[in-house]
Amino acid sequence: MEIQWFPGHMLKTQRLIQEHRSQVDVFLEVVDARAPFATSNPLLDELLGDKPRVVLLNKIDLADPRATSAWKAWYEQRPETRAVLISCKERKNLPAISHAVNELCKDKKWFGLRKVRGMIVGVPNVGKSSLINALVGGKKASVAPKPGHTKGLQRMNISEKFDLFDTPGILWHKFEDPSVGLRLAFLGSVKDEILSVSDLVRELVVTLSALYPQAFSSYWADPVKGLEESEEQVFGRIEAWGRKRGMLAKGGEVAWDRAYQALLSDFRTGKLGRFTLERPPLR
Ligand SMILES: Nc1nc2c(ncn2[C@@H]2O[C@H](COP(=O)(O)OP(=O)(O)OP(=O)(O)O)[C@@H](O)[C@H]2O)c(=O)[nH]1
Ligand SMILES: [Mg+2]
Fold it and tell me: What is the pLDDT of residue 154?
């Protein structure tokens, strides 16, 4: 399943980030803790240049806690990358962000004399606008459970010491590795309207079964064989899941479209469980 999504507003955002770069002291790159690599945009290395950057692994409330610990340990071995694990929803670990920002800026000659200016960047739907709201404790930025929600740059006053730009999520032209495109799509960073939701959900079931063979044990009695599953078995699993959830059409058939949508939505909102789609590299 090949996935590509690079609408015009992303190119525009890229230019806006470049134009505003000189006004920014520190970039806050938000990624999804369930797939920190796939949700990290390779274009940013070029766009942000040598400006200081903090990587924020958001949505840890949805990620597998064991995998999150492994990611934390992996980033700790890389002092050149400052990473902070957070949940905007549960407002977890937010003070660590200003600590990391201050550490990066404290030796600058302007530090303490004027506000620190930050810019939040990242792929769509990772929680950039939610981060603004979590930091100010209100609803300053508009948030939605779909990608491409924020349009245009917006400068927000976070505190007496900190201003932050919110930016629209951006992707890149081509996902060289198709599994990266898939992970972005599973997590809702690609517009669903350009995808075949049924194909996507079948890929999701195969992926989750391989990573978490026990994940669906309450829905499916027979053991999952992960990547060795046949197409028919995967269909069978979605059918069993839909049936168990009472999604039936006339005549007792499973209402397939509803089942696909609901499974995807339950995965994204964590109702299916807490899963992480990537593990840190061994070296
Ligand atoms: N469970 C959970 N959901 C979150 C968290 N942070 C954000 N969300 C949800 O993720 C969805 C996207 O959040 P936004 O803040 O709009 O994401 P964004 O990165 O600004 O998206 P774009 O503006 O489209 O690029 C919303 O449904 C949020 O409620 C989190 O820490 N945990
Ligand atoms: Mg936004």
Answer: 93
Instruction: Considering the chain, tell me which residue range(s) the CATH 1.10.1580.10 domain(s) occupy.
Output: 196-269
Q: Is the CB of 188 under 6 A from ligand 1?
A: no
Asked whether the predicted pLDDT for residue 39 surpasses 70, the reply is yes
**Is the entire prediction scored with pTM above 0.85?**
yes
Q: Establish whether residue 128 lines the binding site of ligand 1, counting it when its CB lies within 6 angstroms of any ligand atom.
A: yes
Q: 229 pLDDT exceeds 80?
A: no
pLDDT given for residue 1 in this prediction: 85
Q: Tokens representing 169?
A: 């999520």
Q: Which residue CA neighbors atom 12 of ligand 1 most closely?
A: 125
The fraction of the chain above a pLDDT of 70, given in percent, is 96
> Which ligand sits nearest to residue 33's alpha carbon?
1
Start-end ranges of CATH 3.40.50.300 in the chain? 8-166
Q: Which residues of 38-59 are buried (b: 16+ CB within 10 A; e: fewer)?
A: bbbbebbeebbeeebbbbbbbb
Q: Which of 88, 94, 120, 165 to mutate to test the pocket of ligand 1 (most atoms within 8 A of CB)?
A: 88
Q: Does residue 208 carry a pLDDT above 80?
A: yes
The atom of ligand 1 lying closest to the CA of 87 is 31
- The residue type at 143: V
Domain 196-269 has CATH 3.40.1190.20: no
Residue 202 near ligand 1, beta carbon < 6 Å: no
How many angstroms separate the CA atoms of 271 and 13, rounded?
Answer: 33
CATH among 3.40.50.2020, 3.30.870.10, 3.90.550.10, 3.40.50.300 for 8-166: 3.40.50.300
DSSP label of 250: G
Contact 282, 219 (CB under 8 A): no
**CB of 181 shorter than 6 A to ligand 1:** no
